[in-house]
Design brief:
CATH topology of the largest domain: Arc Repressor Mutant, subunit A
Protein name: Zn-dependent peptidase ImmA (M78 family)/DNA-binding XRE family transcriptional regulator
Structural class: mainly alpha
Organism: Paenibacillus forsythiae
Number of helices: 18
Distance between the termini: 21 Å
InterPro entries: Cro/C1-type_HTH, IrrE_HExxH, Lambda_DNA-bd_dom_sf, Rad_response_metalloprotease
Order of helices and strands: HHHHHEHHHEEEHHHHHHHHHH
Family: Belongs to the short-chain fatty acyl-CoA assimilation regulator (ScfR) family.
Number of strands: 4
Radius of gyration: 23 Å
Pfam families: HTH_3, Peptidase_M78
Largest sheet: 4 strands, mixed
Shape: elongated
Strand content: under 5%
Strand order of the largest sheet: 1-3-4-2
Number of domains: 3
Length: 389
């Protein structure tokens, strides 16, 4: 019996639950859409029963996943706790959706890994540091260590996203569905994952978000497993540490101090072109390093408020937003070099073209045409072979 037919015979309740969650539907909402009881949906997710053929067709159409996705068995891997920056304000539902998207990214990556040699994970050893109780000096030292380890000297980091990708971190970006959720990270078996939100399109914000999540992975990988049990104060402390790391990593103390030749707001706008860091973050770093006084910092922040440029800064519309490249290029490479056709890729990954495009940063519609043909062929497929009741 072929592998495809074996896949079809075993309905996978985990895939079904993931598809429901990523579409943002509750058990009751999906039950109403399909026309079955909520108990039936729960039984499908628990593996206590499987959908009838007609119900399966409704599931495919409503959730927008090809039929074979619900019969796929992906190789599971260890995933550490997902550290959400908006943990205290984001709803459980919203966090579940983003977590599931990250799972889908890992499924796609594991498939691509069969054909693509991804960069090896290349992170510095952090065991010499104390761990959870990171002080200012240790964070500065860690940021310097990473820069030295990656051969960055004291130059500006033009694209922190691609820098992390080149050093083996799996980076993706997609809409988070909320302006208060900027990014999250996951320690994972093999290589960690960082997901960046597309909801706020700003190069400087993307730079800082990426460096912030890198800080979590380096400083908190052994502690964030219990994030849900952290107090508000403990969570805030970890966020402060990650922010300090991002600031020190993107703005190395001596080089940055030497570049600040004036404390005028216009001069910081010019510095933003060079450092690719927000004016607000540079002002904070300047005060932290003693380049400007507290009173001067307050004055500059007030100036930004008066000019209404604290939320949307100058150059935010001009500087290109760093985008993850490796997943997109890997998919394109398979197709353009005739290793896989669009249809083969869709069938073997087992996801809709829309989902793969979104998670891998492909142009919208890149896989649409073949995907429609694939879905139709799956729906028409003889349902009696699925042995559902």
């Amino acid at each position: 019996m072929s592998q495809d037919k074996r896949d079809y015979q075993l309905f996978n309740p985990k895939r079904f639950k993931e598809a429901r969650i990523v579409r943002g539907l509750s058990i009751v909402e999906l039950a109403n859409e399909i026309g079955v009881s909520k108990q039936a949906i729960s039984q499908y997710e628990l593996g206590e029963s499987v959908p009838r053929a007609s119900t399966m067709m409704s599931i495919v159409n409503i959730l927008g996943f090809p039929k074979n996705f619900f019969y796929k068995e992906f190789k599971e891997q260890y995933v550490g706790n997902t550290f959400f920056r908006a943990s205290n304000s984001a709803t459980k539902k919203l966090r579940e959706i983003q977590y599931t998207k990250a799972q889908f990214v890992s499924y796609i990556y594991k498939y691509l890994e069969n054909f693509i040699d991804f960069p090896s994970l290349n992170l510095p050893d952090t065991t010499k540091f104390n761990g959870f109780m990171w002080n200012r000096n240790e964070i500065e030292q860690l940021a310097n260590d990473v820069r030295e380890y990656w051969g960055l000297a004291e130059q500006p980091i033009g694209n922190v996203v691609n820098l992390m990708e080149r050093n083996g971190i799996l980076v993706c970006s997609f809409d988070m569905g909320a302006r208060n959720m900027d990014a999250f990270c996951q320690p994972r078996q093999g290589r960690p994952l960082i997901a960046l939100g597309n909801d706020k399109q700003s190069a400087a914000r993307r730079q800082f978000d990426g460096a912030h999540e890198l800080g979590h992975l380096l400083m908190h990988k052994d502690e964030i497993y219990n994030q849900d049990n952290l107090t508000k104060e403990e969570f805030g402390k970890m966020e402060e540490q990650a922010n300090r790391f991002a600031s020190a990593f993107l703005l190395p103390s001596k080089a940055f101090a030497d570049s600040v030749t004036s404390s005028s707001l216009d001069s910081y706008i010019e510095l933003k072109k060079y450092w690719r860091v927000s004016i607000g973050a540079m002002l904070y770093r300047s005060r932290d390093l003693g380049i400007i006084t507290d009173s001067r910092y307050t004055s500059l922040v007030k100036q930004m408020s008066m000019k209404k440029i604290r939320v949307k800064e100058p150059l935010d519309d001009l500087l290109p937003v760093p985008q993850p490249q490796i997943l997109r290029r890997s998919v394109e490479m398979l197709i353009e070099n005739d290793v896989k056709s669009e249809q083969q890729l869709l069938q073997e990954v087992g996801m809709s073209g829309e989902m793969i495009e979104m998670l891998c940063g492909l142009d919208k519609g890149r896989l649409d045409f073949k995907d429609v043909e694939h879905k139709l062929s799956l729906i028409i497929n003889n349902d009696e072979e699925n042995h559902v009741c």
